[in-house]
């Protein structure tokens, strides 16, 4: 999809530039130094009288937390890449199968809308009604549809851009967030980081689900009211209802935990 692809390309360009890589490397270096310092301190406290661990099992039991933290810090960049690849595939599937309008170019979307509109008019109206709808109402509805489609695409663009900015900032502070888990007094910062990471990963799926749900519900509401979903009223109702769901989707993501 053009919208999400443009944002992903920008995300990768910013993430891989020298400034971002330098900041991430610095945070990683500081985190590793802190882990090593805490490990050395714990070693001295555990074996202050010159004792040594009896075997590897005792050593691991005493210091496993530092080993795990060090391993997670080193593996974090690869984990982000794997998760982003998996989520990207899921997003593409959701967009391809459930976001037809948003996924299409403007010309393709207008052609599809016109075809569906005429089919709906033919099903509902007599000959006179068909002529009025196709000659007079259709151009106005196409104009409204085009404006609202552009608006939906740009809202999705803003959602995606904000999400990837959010992700870059979280990636930068990941090493620091991991080492804060070592101390009970700072562990809540790690929990807050994980919550924010969850919200970040849920933003685009939440938008796509809200968009699909809004389309289905608004169509059903129009049918219950005996109205054509392709009319100006139907299009405006669907758009306003989707805006409501978009706002709620972000709010509910933050309130899940």
From TrEMBL:
Keyword hit for Glycosyltransferase: no
Record's protein name: Transmembrane protein
Keywords: Membrane, Transmembrane, Transmembrane helix
Superkingdom, taxonomy of origin: Bacteria
Originating organism: Phocaeicola intestinalis
Transmembrane spans: 23-43, 63-83, 135-158, 164-182, 194-218, 230-247
């Amino acid at each position: 999809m053009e919208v999400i692809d443009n944002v992903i390309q920008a995300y990768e360009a910013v993430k891989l530039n020298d400034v971002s890589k330098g900041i991430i490397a610095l945070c990683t270096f500081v985190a590793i130094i802190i882990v090593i310092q805490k490990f050395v301190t714990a070693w001295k406290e555990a074996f202050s009288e010159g004792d040594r661990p009896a075997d590897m099992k005792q050593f691991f039991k005493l210091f496993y937390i530092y080993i795990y933290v060090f391993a997670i810090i080193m593996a974090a960049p690869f984990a982000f890449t794997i998760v982003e690849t998996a989520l990207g595939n899921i997003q593409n599937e959701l967009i391809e199968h459930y976001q037809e309008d948003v996924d299409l170019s403007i010309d393709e979307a207008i052609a599809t809308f016109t075809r569906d509109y005429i089919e709906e008019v033919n099903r509902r109206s007599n000959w006179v009604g068909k002529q009025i709808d196709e000659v007079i109402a259709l151009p106005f509805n196409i104009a409204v549809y085009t404006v609202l489609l552009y608006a939906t695409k740009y809202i999705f663009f803003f959602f995606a851009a904000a999400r990837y900015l959010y992700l870059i900032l979280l990636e930068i502070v990941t090493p620091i967030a991991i080492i804060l888990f070592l101390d009970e007094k700072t562990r809540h910062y790690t929990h807050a980081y994980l919550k924010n990471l969850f919200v970040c990963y849920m933003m685009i799926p939440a938008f796509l689900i809200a968009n699909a749900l809004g389309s289905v519900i608004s169509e059903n509401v129009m049918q219950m009211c005996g109205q054509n979903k392709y009319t100006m009223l139907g299009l405006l109702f669907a758009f306003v209802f989707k805006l409501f769901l978009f706002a709620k989707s972000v709010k509910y993501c933050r309130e899940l935990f």
